[in-house]
């Protein structure tokens, strides 16, 4: 192994581990249940958004995947201390699968589009678009139909129930975008 790849591989491993730990730590914040649909509001999607926006597509998606795999393996890393195969097979499973693809989309958009914008305003707008697309649209695309199928709800009820998540998820998207852009301005090599 050459000396130039070892630090990069080590750095990538550390970034993935740190962001996986951050996503898991955000699960310590108690979930908020709505009663309309059996999917709680959690802080962990903020971690998923940050992983993609700060680490890029593959490292961000890998950080999300680590948390998903460890949770499915039985570690209580999800909000409320949940873990095990049941979380993937249950009503929240689609949202978990969406974490991987959401962070992948956010990371790709940040790496190849957002940080290349010339003005701070354009970066902010593009960052919000990227985070909303990956962190909300993509995750909901997996979560809403999955919840409908697993619970037996019709798609419309699952869709309407998920709208309760939207205000909080939009706030998370704003926070993730502002944090990621601030970090990228200070440390320009993070997405390389």
TrEMBL record:
InterPro entries: BioY. GO terms for cellular component: plasma membrane. It is found in: Cell membrane. Its main location: membrane. It holds the Pfam family BioY. It is a multi-pass membrane protein. Keywords: Cell membrane, Membrane, Transmembrane, Transmembrane helix, Transport. The chain crosses the membrane at residues 12-29, 62-81, 93-114, 121-143, 163-183. GO terms for molecular function: biotin transmembrane transporter activity. PANTHER family: BIOTIN TRANSPORTER BIOY (PTHR34295), BIOTIN TRANSPORTER BIOY-RELATED (PTHR34295:SF4). Belongs to the BioY family. This is Biotin transporter.
